[in-house]
Amino acid sequence: MKRIFSGLQPSGVLTLGNYLGALRRWVELQESYDCLYCIVDMHAITMPLEPTALRENIYEVAATYMACGLDPSKSTLFIQSHVAAHAELGWMLGCKTPMGWLNRMTQFKDKAGKDKEKASLGLYGYPCLQAADILLYQTHLVPVGEDQKQHIELTRDIAQSVNSAYNASLFTLPEPLISEIGARIMSLRDGNKKMSKSDPSDFSRINLRDDTDLIVQKIKKARTDAEPLPDNFDQLADRPEARNLITIYASLQGQTPQKVCETFSGQLFSIFKPALTELVIEKLEPISHRINELLSDKGELARHLKKGAERAEELASPTLRNAQNIFGFVAR
Ligand code: ATP
Ligand code: LTN
């Protein structure tokens, strides 16, 4: 059975972008693949985060995974720091990755901001740890949003270069799996910026746990324009905010953006926005309700995560040992 690996950072509250770009797809995939879904806490500490917030976020991500439909009896759900092999292989891969390759990573440029001297080594080496996450499990497919494509391509480059440097087939080369619709949900305040859980403005995003009133307000305030909707999605090429709202609707409704344009053709946002609001609430309310239920029993969440970590460790161990041996380390 083909193997899938993906992960999400417990760096804040999860957004509709995380759901449509990643999580929702993960749920479908668990029916036909051997899936590992990780809470990448070691990645989350590459940016400033209070320890109490991190701990809360980890439980919240675990509850969100399950509330969205990930089933611990079908998928392996675990916390990255529970499986030490991630850090160990991450270091080894970092030693085999040229700085020139890391310098091209746009996520580092975005997150480091203007003062790169202040960015940490961890933020810079982030993609090597991500490569270890994926390669440890001989992963075939990595379902992610569009923004992660570059990191998966780098993972392939690292795998290929290590395989050929040691003349060994140590790592399987993974492929990114990116949905056609919903792979890049944009900010509600700026249609050219990705919806992000670390954006300072809460009104830039819809969080999976937002209550009904907040969803109503956020969509009401979402930036749009005064033009009616066209009957053809291609005509929205230079109207990024309109394009984004149509995409969100299409993605939640399981329709093509073209079909949504046909339905709302000629309508103004004063008609479309209430319809979108209703749909978002209908889809998110059961999820946020279930998250709250699951969070009320953290012991149960911890038991699932422990089991997941045990299985993950078992699967990761042969690849780590093999890599250590091939690199020339001496077995204990
Ligand atoms: P941050 O905003 O803190 O950078 P993030 O939400 O971008 O975090 P992760 O939590 O690690 O980063 O992302 C988890 C998954 O969600 C990844 O597969 C990522 O591609 C996807 N994702 C994140 N934002 C969006 C978005 N706006 N549209 C579609 N997919 C997204
Ligand atoms: N870098 C990703 C999160 C991430 C990931 C992974 C995704 C860490 N390790 C392995 C897929 C596979 C992000 O920032 N969205």
Q: Spatial order of the strands in the main sheet?
A: 1-2-3
What is the architecture of the largest domain at the second tier of CATH?
3-Layer(aba) Sandwich
> Termini distance?
32 Å
Structural class: mainly alpha
Brief synopsis:
By secondary structure, the chain is mainly alpha-helical.
Question: What does this 3D model show about the protein?
Answer:
The protein has 2 domains: 3-177 and 298-327, Rossmann fold; 202-293, Orthogonal Bundle (Tyrosyl-Transfer RNA Synthetase). It is built from 13 helices and 5 strands. The protein has helices at 16-29, 41-44, 51-68, 85-94, 99-103, 106-112, 121-135, 149-165, 212-221, 240-253, 257-264, 269-295, 298-327; strands at 3-8, 34-39, 76-79, 141-143, 175-177. It has a 3-stranded parallel β-sheet. It has a two-stranded parallel ribbon with strand order 4-5. α8 links the parallel β4 (141-143) and β5. α3 crosses α12 and α10 packs across α12 (269-295). The structure holds adenosine-5'-triphosphate and L-tryptophanamide. The site of adenosine-5'-triphosphate has 21 residues, from α1.
Write the layout of secondary structure elements.
Blueprint (H helix, E strand, L loop, with lengths): L2 E6 L7 H14 L4 E6 L1 H4 L6 H18 L7 E4 L5 H10 L4 H5 L2 H7 L8 H15 L5 E3 L5 H17 L9 E3 L34 H10 L18 H14 L3 H8 L4 H27 L2 H30 L5
Parallel strand pairs: 1-2, 2-3, 4-5
Helix pairs in contact: 3-12, 4-7, 4-13, 7-8, 9-12, 10-11, 10-12
The structure holds adenosine-5'-triphosphate and L-tryptophanamide.
Adenosine-5'-triphosphate binds next to helix 1.
